[in-house]
Amino acid sequence: MDPAINVQGLTKHFRETTALDDVSFWANPGTVLGLLGPNGAGKTTAVRVLATLLKADAGHASVGGYDVRTQAHLVRQRIGLTGQYASVDEKLTGRENLLLIGRLLGLSRRDARRRAQELLSEFSLEEAAGRAAKTYSGGMRRRLDLAASLIGRPSILFLDEPTTGLDPRARLDLWNLIRRLVADGTTVLLTTQYLEEADQLADDIVVLDRGRIIASGTPEQLKQHIGARTLAVQARQEQDVPAIAAMLADLTGGHAEVAGLTISVPAPDPGHLPALVRRLDASGISVNELMLRSASLDDVFLTLTGRHAEPTGAPTEQRESSA
Amino acid sequence: MKPPRETTHHPRTSLLQGLQQTMTLAWRTLLQIRHNPWELGDFSIQPILFLLLFLFVFGGAIAGSTADYLRFVLPGVIVMNMVFVTVYVGHGLNTDLTKGMFDRLRALPIARWSPLAGRIIADLVKQAGSILLLLSVGALLGFRLETSISSLLLMVVLVLTVALAISWVMVLVGVLARDPEHVQLFGFTALFPITFISNVFVPVETMPGWVQALVNVNPVSLLADAARGLLVGGPVLQPALWSLLWALAIMAVFAPLSVWALNRRLSAQ
Ligand SMILES: Nc1ncnc2c1ncn2[C@@H]1O[C@H](COP(=O)(O)OP(=O)(O)O)[C@@H](O)[C@H]1O
Ligand SMILES: [Mg+2]
Fold it and tell me: Which of A95, B3, B203, B238 could form a disulfide with A129 if both were Cys (CB 3.0 to 4.6 A apart)?
């Protein structure tokens, strides 16, 4: 099976910034590839190169089997793009926005109208269809943006941080929409800053940091490596920290990370929490706080790079100084 | 190793498709007005207010009677309004660039030139509408065409040709400006002196010599003179030819410059 998206050695500089540094990945047709990374990791740059909006300095990229540089027009016929910032015409109504794209894609007036109607009802925008898009809420705008990307029934869809800024309810709705599209055979490249989102939607995840790939694999592989949850303990006294760190490492088999009085460790098993309580009790150590939480992008970064997930340009020493 | 340049031996949009896409995009720009009627005010109510203000406040003092002044000032106001309306080209383009709409269009399989062409065509339609409106208001106030219908049509074509040229300057402003507000600021700041150091409102003979020199080479004056000649009689050929020459010169400089600046902005963003 030929990959729907194939990227090899992609590199892009913006003056001194290296936005993409020898990046390679691929996605099979009908799957979701998650590009996971903090602000400034290079996610948007990668999407813009793949959507033919930006030329890379080096490397190759093909989408739907066509080269994004030499066969851009053929690529454009097959893709849908929902950018990081909802890009609809705010001065037009929702329906007019969809009609515009339909007409530009060569649909007849009647077909464009029918397709717009289909998408408006599918995306629960019928009631607002006659209002100017500038009056829409953030979630409605995202849905309209996504609907506009789907007019031409693209086989490959790029979604750049589609749920950033959405409330939890709207996020869940969008997740379900994306799942439906994938069930119908669409290949999706999704960028996100949320590990949970990549975990929920992606078949494969590529973790980007400052333009480089620092990890890739299925969500299961990544979670096994990182730990789906993090167990964190805040010691009451500094002298207890090494003992607690040793205890956590022993219990979970992972490497305990110390930051000030807080010790954290990836915890694959939720049963570790009660076990830890028993051990602390047995050794007579009292603590300020005990937490078991889902791993975040920050935990991924700690595990993979020993750094917190910070936007590019922020000093890496920040961790020590804030500890 | 440098990757190969984009080759042309694969299917693209035909010229006909490109023109259809251009018309669709022009339709989109005009449709925007429907939901933002205040925009209409800028190229309808505003010039009418200007016309009324000058006519009834200064008309008597400048030309002796409002009727005589109307003959003089209406063609001038048409030209002045045309110049200001071109700012919308830059404003709209910049909005598309900063709000991501331009990227949405560029990711579609459409002719590369159609977004810009659509905007410029929409502007010419707005311009034609404005001219028609001002002529109608003028007629209500007592303005009479003293030449012929073909002269009137020639005036419209001439004004639209110069509008097309100035639109390219506004494309450049739209590309260079940080946001739409700056387009308006730049645009109007640059256009105000050009339109007011002209013979739009006052005959050039009343001005001091050095100002006359400026006013006489100003394309706005030349176009206003040509418009007067074509609507109420008087010399036409010389001011019309000079206006056309200006339009060609402006286009020759600004069309390539604007396209270059646009491509530069797109490849750096
Ligand atoms: N047009 C641009 N000009 C200069 N630097 C840019 C530009 N676009 C992106 N960058 C830089 O490239 C890096 C990657 O940016 P981006 O791809 O937007 O990351 P992400 O989408 O993951 O937040 C960042 O350091 C960013 O500042
Ligand atoms: Mg981004």
Answer: A95
